[in-house]
Write a structure and sequence with these properties.
The chain has about 150 residues and is an alpha/beta fold. About 45% of the residues lie in helices and about 10% in strands.
């Protein structure tokens, strides 16, 4: 079933490009250019599914590690898998970015701080209520977003 899902996803991506949220491509480009930043993914997608979707949106590349739905089912275990990979690459601290309360809770369960971003169905207030250390409305202001993501957390 997973093989068929990935085949269907590849066909869908070939027909219709995913569109990145405003500021995301520029932010990733800026972060990838920094020697002090190691970018990775935490996603419930299969590793290959994430690659297909992000390639389709022009965002793949530069992610040096990840935790995927193909690694584990519980979100916190996906975050833990990504964090273990990041530590193998020398990371000593991390910030998880997520757009749902479940993302916030999973990061905290894995022992990591989280930046909530209100780009989905949840508001800044709802993400803050669930304990995100930092909450952003989106990524459109790239310079401010970079400064906030790399600055001290409360």
């Amino acid at each position: 079933m997973l093989v068929r899902y990935l085949e269907a996803l590849a066909q869908q991506c070939a027909r219709n490009a995913y569109e990145a949220l405003p500021g995301v491509a520029a932010l990733l480009q800026r972060l990838r250019a920094r020697a002090d930043v190691l970018l990775g993914l935490c996603t419930g997608n299969l590793a290959r599914g994430a690659e297909l979707k992000l390639t389709c949106a022009g965002l793949w590349g530069g992610f040096r590690f990840g935790g995927y739905g193909s690694d584990a089912e519980p979100r916190a275990d996906i975050v833990r898998a990504a964090w273990a990979s990041a530590r193998e690459l020398g990371a000593t601290e991390a910030l998880v970015i997520g757009d749902t309360p479940r993302d916030v809770l999973a990061a905290h369960e894995a022992g990591l701080p989280v930046c909530g971003v209100a780009t989905g169905r949840y508001t800044v207030h709802e993400l803050a209520e669930h304990g995100a250390e930092l909450v952003l409305p989106g990524f459109a202001d790239v310079e401010q977003t970079e400064r906030l993501l790399l600055g001290p957390l409360r």
